Amino acid sequence: MKEAQIVATIHRIGEDIIALADYLAAYVKEEQTIAENTVTPVAGEAPAAPAIKLEDVRTILAEISRSGKTAQMKELLGMFGASKLSDVKPDDYAALLAAAKEVKNA
Question: Which pLDDT score is estimated for 41?
Answer without folding.
Answer: 62
